[in-house]
Amino acid sequence: MLTLVASYTKLLDNNLTAPQYFILQTLAKHDKQTSSYFANVLGVTLSAITNLSSKLVQKGYIERVVSETDRRQVHLKITDQGREVEQRMLERYKQLTDGLWSEFSGTELDLLIHSYQKMIDHLELNMNITNTKSQEE
What we know:
Helix 2 (18-30) packs across helix 4. The chain has helices at 2-12, 18-30, 35-42, 46-59, 80-97, 106-136, and strands at 32-34, 62-66, 74-78. It starts with a helix and ends with a helix. Strand 2 (62-66) and strand 3 (74-78) form a beta hairpin. It contains six helices and three strands; from the N terminus they run H-H-E-H-H-E-E-H-H. The protein is mostly helical. It has two domains: 2-98, Winged helix-like DNA-binding domain superfamily/Winged helix DNA-binding domain (Arc Repressor Mutant, subunit A, Orthogonal Bundle); 104-137. It has a three-stranded antiparallel beta sheet with strand order 1-3-2. Pfam families: MarR.
């Protein structure tokens, strides 16, 4: 699955990895987040997020902002340039997927949605089990 996302991301912007695009897309929706949030969601270390985010900072897509309430906490925040890039990628996605679902019947779409939901439920259950085991150790 990650290979598919990574390949798709390369079609949109050859200079962005799938995790970088995820960070950019998340920040476009939520304005700012902590590195800890991304490390937890992506299942990687904080140093990996620092590396990923540094590249986005260098490109001018995001910036680091020190929290006003806790100077030790730093948020990642999307820039105007980052919003433009994310919007262009979204438009490219729409072009690439235009008509993708038009050949499916209503029944086929329902089955597909149901199947994806089963997969998501299974993954979430396994993630919860894994997280619980990690916390117990």
